[in-house]
Amino acid sequence: MNPPTNDGVRLDAITFGYGPTTVVRDVSLALPAGKLLALLGPSGCGKTTLLKLLGGYLAPSAGRVFLRGRDVTALPPEARNAGTVFQNYALFPHLTARQNVAFGLEVRRVARAVCDRQVDDMLARVGLSAEERDRKPARLSGGQQQRVALARALIIEPDVLLLDEPLANLDRHLRDQLRTELRTLQRQTGVTAVLVTHDQEEALAVSDLIGVMAAGRVLQVGAPADVYDRPRTPFVAKFLGAANLLPGKMVGSAAEFVMVRPEHCALNPEGGRWTWTGRVAGVTFLGADLLVDVTCDNGLSLRVRSRATERVQPGDLVTVGAAEHHLWPIPDADPPEVTLTGAGGDALSPTFPPA
Ligand SMILES: Nc1ncnc2c1ncn2[C@@H]1O[C@H](COP(=O)(O)OP(=O)(O)OP(=O)(O)O)[C@@H](O)[C@H]1O
Which of 115, 168, 196, 284 is the least buried, fewest Cβ under 10 Å from its Cβ? Predict the structure, then answer.
């Protein structure tokens, strides 16, 4: 079968193990050219391994890898035209920023004058000042080093840009700023990109598509809002943000859980078909919002995100309501090797363990 020409990246049934331990299981996905895919999942789920399989640093035990419609499964990294940015920058310490970025062009024997111009253009695009360009990595901040790493990856006009937690070592403010810059640059250059992250917000904020991974599988791929609003499994629901998972079925659905996000729950609504009564177990002040945890008579715990102007205290008797269109019956179960609790600690404990 010929892959469609708008393919940026395609994985067909990729499986990989370190020795006998399988860490990537039968992964298939397609990313159109020019789009950014965020691979999101808890530590150890196989994100970096999948990125290495894309870059050619590892070879799959089964399946095929296509970049720009070309079957690269048997090709080594240097024949794949992939640009890579790692969490730890991995710049050449003895070279200046300029020389680091020029390296990829020199290997390709680009003429000196052309090379100089392109390197300067690229370093300007990533926001490095003229003076910083002549510094070695040790004299650049983490954010500046990551800008150089990005320039170095982009200057070769890669078929795919592979980003392995590139912002993880930066402080929060810089991380937010750089992720916006990264996204702008990716859009401007039109490069197809795959970003590995365990940060839900980062994945939702920068990507065209999110692939949620757990235990070596990609459980769902879709547009951020789609995956957030319509998760296919309980794990996906929980990993993308706080979720109330109500055990039980809605009429016409085989789902075992119905999801409602805390921001779609209201305290003491007037009327409504979907309401639960209980006592406030805890209140967390977040500035603009409050998180209100409610324990219902039947043992159910519900979290409500409401405006901080709401006046509630632990012990108050309240009603929690949600509009029917915000109730999402989760269509699939998690695969057996994926456990909500085992995969990521407390944040992933199901609110309502299955009976
Ligand atoms: N070189 C290796 N040899 C053996 N096992 C490995 C090796 N590298 C990774 N693993 C294991 O493979 C699994 C997947 O690792 P991988 O680094 O792909 O996960 P990850 O999702 O990127 O995690 P993190 O977010 O912590 O980097 C983990 O269980 C890990 O311990």
Answer: 284
Q: Are residues 54 and 182 in the same domain?
A: yes
Evaluate: CB of 143 within 6 angstroms of ligand 1.
no
Instruction: Find the mean pLDDT for residues 105-124.
Output: 87
Question: Of the candidates 204, 229, 254, which is a domain's last residue?
Answer: 229
Pick the closest to residue 8 from 160, 150, 235 (CA basis). 160
3-state helix, strand, coil in the chain (%, to 5): 30, 30, 40
Neighbours of 102 (CB within 10 A): 23
Instruction: Give distance in angstroms: CA of 64 to centre of ligand 1.
Output: 21
- Kindly state whether residue 346 falls inside one of the protein's structural domains: no
Number of domains making up the chain: 2
Nearest CA owner, ligand 1 atom 5: 18
Cβ–ligand 1 contact at 337 (below 6 Å)? no
CATH code of the domain in which 192 resides: 3.40.50.300
Write down the ipTM of this complex. 0.94
Query: pTM to 2 decimals?
Result: 0.88
Q: Give me ligand 1 centre to Cα 50, in Å.
A: 10
Atom of ligand 1 nearest to the CA of 51: 18
Mind listing the pLDDT tens digit for each residue in 232-248?
999 999 999 999 998 86
Same domain (yes/no): 203, 82: yes
